[in-house]
Amino acid sequence: MNHIRKLLFIAALLSSSLAFGQLTEDPDDRRDQGRDPLKTQTPEGRPLPFGQRLRFGGGINGFQFGNPFSIGVAPVVAYQATEHLIVGVSATYTYTRYKPGYIYANQGVTINQYGGRGFLMYEFIPSILPNLYLHGELQSTTYQSKTDQVAGAYTGTVTAPLVGVTYMQPISRRFGVNLTALYNLNYKPSDPISYQVYGGTPFVLRLSFF
Length: 210
Prior knowledge:
Blueprint: H1 2-23, E1 54-64, E2 69-80, E3 85-98, E4 109-123, E5 132-147, E6 154-172, E7 175-184, H2 192-197, E8 203-209
Antiparallel strand pairs: 1-2, 1-8, 2-3, 3-4, 4-5, 5-6, 6-7, 7-8
């Protein structure tokens, strides 16, 4: 049931974003004989300056409902390096709450995570599935884990490589809605810290806008 709610929530956001995009299309996006504009060149074939290749936005990451409950935000700055390659960086914050009984019988656990990530997105089969990107990133997270009724908190830092795919629905030349599915290569279910910090799953589902 939780998965169905998530899918419906994402579908509603995508639909509303598409409708919004029809009203807010970038005026620089001049079509040439019905073709989409190039992402790194003007319609006349001149390279776009650095500033016009930048993308700004943010996203929602690590969201889970129930037990644990988790929600995160992540501002993003990305750069259109080539027609098919995007590179970027992002700061991240995630709040996670485990209710009593999930980890410890009578105690809940609250985890605050701060960090950053660098990522690459490559549109690998544009002629067959345009806007589908291979996605790889390296994420570093500093966490603070606090157990109810226990003095003090446990802190540390973990680093994880993640790989997967991103589907981007363009709204304008420099903005789109992105649905990302990643797999955490550093996830260890037998490690309590890894289990808590990554929400008990190696899979990451993320919604972002840039």
